[in-house]
């Protein structure tokens, strides 16, 4: 559970620690804003996508489903700076499909916490396997990390691409290639 008053206290200390004046007008409400922002961007801590993926519909044919270009914003756990980009999800159903919006909600849950891009990628794939009981899931994430852009190595424009496949995607190279071709299609 997010403790907003503790975040406010910590934010005031941070402002003072960088040598700023926490009581000047422009910064007066900043600790409260930071607390509200953290409540939003860390709203996925300790949550799973079970409630979203449990709402599913029967299908007679287990054909490939792809939801691509799902925009996300997350926070890198090393620097608490944003990383953001697109998630592409593919799966082969096992008699049931999820509502399309629930795939985007799944991305939201796992991106709203201190995260690693690799972990975000496999947590989405694992959730589909576990909560929608699909025959296979494949997830590709492409993102830009602000911690590589605005500080440190300073390489704006660098894209990190991660992928994860589970179930029948592990054995079926042709299926993986088909998904990659469909994801790349504009
Ligand atoms: N694998 C992975 N690394 C990440 C991710 N987000 C940030 N990083 C990296 O985490 C590493 C942390 O490295 P450290 O050496 O502990 O931290 P640092 O001194 O701030 O490193 P620099 O960024 O190189 O200045 C950096 O190389 C980041 O680029 C991510 O999602 N996945
Ligand atoms: Zn980072």
Structure overview:
The chain has 186 residues and is an alpha+beta fold. The protein folds into two domains: 4-41, GTP cyclohydrolase I, N-terminal domain (GTP Cyclohydrolase I, Chain A, domain 1), CATH 1.10.286.10; 50-184, GTP cyclohydrolase I, C-terminal domain/NADPH-dependent 7-cyano-7-deazaguanine reductase, N-terminal domain (GTP Cyclohydrolase I, domain 2, 2-Layer Sandwich). Helices cover 44% and strands 26% of the residues. The chain has helices spanning 4-17, 25-28, 30-41, 50-53, 100-111, 117-131, 146-149, 168-171, 173-184, and strands at 56-58, 65-76, 82-92, 96-98, 114-115, 136-145, 160-167. It has a five-stranded mixed β-sheet with strand order 5-2-3-6-7, with helices on both faces. A two-stranded antiparallel sheet has the order 1-4. Strand 2 and strand 3 form a beta hairpin. Helix 1 packs across helix 3 and helix 5 crosses helix 6. The longest helix is centred in the middle third of the chain and has 15 residues, at 117-131. The protein is elongated and about 65 Å long. It starts with a helix and ends with a helix. The mean pLDDT is 97. Guanosine-5'-triphosphate (GTP) is lined by residues 76, 78, 116-118, 145, 147-148, 152-153. The site of guanosine-5'-triphosphate has 10 residues, from helix 6 and helix 7.
